[in-house]
Amino acid sequence: MPSVWGTGVPSFESFQQTVRNKAIPVDASVESLVSLLKRRQISGSRKCAEATAFLLRRVLESFGDGDISELLENVREVGQRLMAAQPREPAVGNVVRRVLGLIRVEAEEDRKGEVTTYSDTASESQSLSPTLEVPAPQMSLPVPSQLASSLLQRERDDDDTATLVTRTSQRPPLKVQPSQANSKAASMNTSMFSLLSHSISSLASPAARRGTQSSSVQPPLSFQALANLNAAKDLRAEILEGLEELVDEIRQADDQIASYALEHIHPHETLLTHSSSKTVQKFLLKAAAKRKFTVVHAEAYPNDHEATYESIVGKSKGNNVKRRLSDQFLKTLSAAGVTVILIPDSAIFALMARVSKVILDSHIALANGGLIASSGANVLAKAAKVHRTPVIVLSAVYKISPTYPFNKSAFMEDGDPSHVVSYQDGSFLRKVGVQNPLFDHVPADFVDLYVTNLGGHAALSTQRIVKDHYRDEDLDLDKIRISLEGPYMSN
Q1: 83/346 Cα distance (integer angstroms)
Q2: pTM of the predicted model, to two decimals?
Q3: pLDDT the model gives residue 53
Q4: H/E element holding 385?
Q5: What are the residues facing 437 on neighbouring strands?
Q6: Helix (H) or strand (E) holding 350
Q7: How distant, in Å, are the alpha carbons of 133, 198, 216 from that of 178?
Q8: Residue 154 backbone dihedrals phi, psi, to 5 degrees
Q9: DSSP 167-182
């Protein structure tokens, strides 16, 4: 079996190349991504979401013959392994849920198409079948002979009476009810010798013989027949097309969010942001093309201060070659003509009174409107709450998770403590415990507006976004129901 990585270094770029190699088994690709997530060689919401989508596309392409329930089971198992490898990257689970929902939607649309085809075929066969048309006999009421002779006698005496008699004799005959005539005629004309020559629909009921049966009422197609139809029909082409649209959404999310910058950034405003974020940088650069404003940038020490300095002036204090190579084509804020003031984190509260808006990037957005962001975001949002400064959070739709922060520690992650205290201070480290949290939880009360690739939304409207993009059956990946009604049933 060929090597998964070949001669390259395990990274997101090398995984993109290897996952397209059809010679490498799917299980090997799954193991490679699990290893990359565990070692944090792939980190960040966007890269984790893209890598998950690439792997699930490979799983769909290699899926053989089987029904929809088997495909859902395969995707669920792969998603559980990826989430277990890195539970602090909820974007992985979000993409898995989106793919599961995509499979269910395509299966349901195929089921509706099969039911429509079945109904049309049944209606055509019913319209083509011969029906028994029995004309309703017209019966006239006989006139008594005594009344006729008296009328003739009166006709001789008076011409007016004769005219009245003539009109009376020309009166249209009384008719018997057609239903009674039809039932009698059908019972007389239908015999054992001619029973097979008539259609069943013509003998079912008088309404059916008159052709008044509604075409919308058709016998339902059994769930097992729908399962067989969906198993026989290959839905992978439609599912893969939807998955490609999901990959394009992930790649274009930052540009789509940046397109709303002019709606929220006005001339001569003072904006406060935190840490280095490609999404925030594109958002500010889009507004800087037409408007002048000032940006106050907190350095986010000790985990992200070097990348923050690099995003402002384009020069790194450290030897971070990997970051420079990945963002070398992104214009810096100072080069775009933006006035940037770099401040330490301790000066955030002092300068908040001069700030017009706070712009944050989210690592993950939660269903209750809160978010998980870089360390220090909670202090910044709390200071904005005190000064009544609006807080705008930039978050793509694939970052909005259906989970709730019941256990906040499950989203937290600690970094290298040597960034806070050097290992050379050994005597000090033996006496204290040092923690370096990488993320903060920001409650929903501190957020005023979410700007996604679909536009602006209030903090509490994230539940509606979750409802629109995730199926209820896929919210809890550990308890997904595979054997469902309709096209998901299997023997």
Answers
A1: 36
A2: 0.71
A3: 95
A4: helix 377-386
A5: 414
A6: helix 348-351
A7: 12, 20, 26
A8: -70, -25
A9: HHHTSPPP---HHHHH
Taking the C-alpha atoms of residue 206 and residue 212, their distance in angstroms, rounded to an integer, is: 9
Rounded CA gap, 429 and 420, in Å? 11
For residue 151, what are the β-bridge partners? Answer: none
Cα dist. 103→48, 56, 112, 387, 488 in Å? 21, 12, 14, 47, 10
**Distance of CA 4 to CAs 19, 32, 41, 44, 56, Å?**
9, 7, 15, 22, 17
Q: How many CA atoms lie within 13 A of 309 on its CB side?
A: 12
pLDDT value at position 232?
Answer: 34
| Cα–Cα distance, 48 to 58 (Å, whole number) | 16
With H, G, I as helix, E, B as strand and everything else as coil, classify residue 69.
Answer: helix
CB 420 within 8 Å of CB 428? no
Radius of gyration of the chain, Cα coordinates, nearest whole angstrom = 38
Q: Burial letters for 129-150: b for 16+ Cβ neighbours within 10 Å, e otherwise? A: eeebebeeeeeeeeeeeeeeee
Q: Which amino acid is at 336?
A: A
Quote the distance between the C-alpha of residue 136 and its chain's center.
Answer: 59
Alpha carbon distances (Å) from 7 to 2, 3, 14, 322, 384: 11, 8, 10, 18, 50
Q: CB of 272 within 8 A of CB of 355?
A: yes
Q: Which secondary-structure segment (H or E) carries 100? A: helix 90-128
Q: Determine which helix (DSSP H) or strand (DSSP E) holds 450, and give its type and residue range.
A: strand 449-452
The residue type of 6 is: G
- Using the Cα atoms of residue 119, residue 122, residue 124 and residue 126 in order, give the sign of their dihedral: negative
Token pair of 329, please? 């084509």
Point out which residues pair with 360 in neighbouring strands: 393
Name the DSSP class of 159. H
**pLDDT value at residue 316:** 52
Residue type, 335: A
CB 96 within 8 A of CB 52: yes
d(CA 131, CA 211): 9
Q: Are 246 and 46 in contact (CB under 8 A)?
A: no
Beta-carbon count within 10 A of 94 CB: 27
Given a cut of 50, the residues of the chain with pLDDT beneath it are 1-2, 118, 122, 131-134, 137, 139-143, 147-148, 151-152, 155, 161-169, 174-176, 178-188, 190, 198-223, 225-226, 228-233, 317-329, 480-491
* Three-state secondary structure call for residue 249: helix
The Cα 401–Cα 383 span in angstroms is: 26
Over residues 7-25, the pLDDT tens digits come to 567 888 889 888 888 888 9
CB 394 within 8 A of CB 254: no
37: Cα within 13 Å, side-chain hemisphere: 29
Residue with tokens 């269903």: 367
Of 185, 188, 208, 186, nearest to 138 by C-alpha is: 185
Residues shown for the chain:
491
